[in-house]
Amino acid sequence: MNYHNEQAEGIFRNIYMAYVFGDNLYRRKLIKIPEPRFVVFYNGTDKMPEQSVLRLSDAYESKSEELDLELRIRFININPGYNEEMVEKSPTLYQYVKFVDIVRKYQQEMSFPEAVEKAIDECIKKGILAEFLRKNRAEVLRVSIFEYDEEEHMRQEREESRQEGIEQVNDLYDKLHDLNREEDIWKAIKDVEYRKKLLEEFHLD
To answer: Is 131 exposed, middle or buried (0-12, 13-18, 19+ CB in 10 A)?
Structure first.
């Protein structure tokens, strides 16, 4: 599960619309807006750094020297043992981390939906996000299961992609060997970019 707010996009949009439309949209005067900051709280099961910066431009096929659009997102790992001082400053975030920890504890003994149900009951009894969980029990269960299925699906896709990549490289080395291009094999092993070019050459990319 990843910590997120499904309404965040709408809230962000409405805040900016309030600033823009609260003034005359077509006046010449520059309309001042708050500085936006983008943060992702991560509590998935993959091993990730404590903090990092994600950039939209990392996904660009090619980059110009002067980018017309860039987006920096602060990535914060909120799993136990990471950024604990920061998490403890926010009672809601702290309780959410506790909720996820309890879900994972029960998950070792039962199916994921049952684990979420048990965790909700325990958290309500212990006063962990109690009011929110009482009011939104069905929605929490639905979103939690969706995120779990999505995370598992993405993990399977990564594994399939990794296996496909291994098979492509092995096919490349076999073809190079058949063509007595042993030097290219050794160069491809050491140089990732050269290996990509060879994969394209043999239409294995």
So the answer is: exposed
Most confident segment among 14-18, 97-101, 155-159:
97-101
Residue 104's CB: how many other CB atoms inside 10 A? 17
Taking only Cα atoms into account, the Rg of the chain, rounded to an integer number of angstroms, comes to: 24
Sign of the dihedral defined by the CA atoms of residues 23, 26, 27, 32, in that order: positive
The identity of residue 17, as a single letter, is M
Q: Which residues pair with residue 40 across a beta bridge?
A: 75
The average confidence (pLDDT) of the chain is: 78
Residue 6: predicted pLDDT: 45
Tokens of 13: 């949009």
Query: For the chain, which residues make up each domain, given as ranges?
Result: 1-58+68-83
Kind of pairing between the strands at 72-77 and 51-55: antiparallel
Q: Where are the beta strands (DSSP E) in 3-141?
A: 38-42, 51-55, 72-77
Residue 79 carries which side chain, given as an amino acid letter? N
pLDDT at 161: 62
Q: Which residue has the higher pLDDT, 28 or 192?
A: 192
Distance CA 4, CA 87 (A): 15
Distance, in Å, from the CA atom of 103 to the CA atom of 192, rounded to the nearest integer, reads 41
CA 170 to CA 195: how far, in whole Å? 11
Tell me phi and psi for residue 137, to 5 degrees.
-55, -50
- Does residue 75 or residue 145 have the better pLDDT? 75
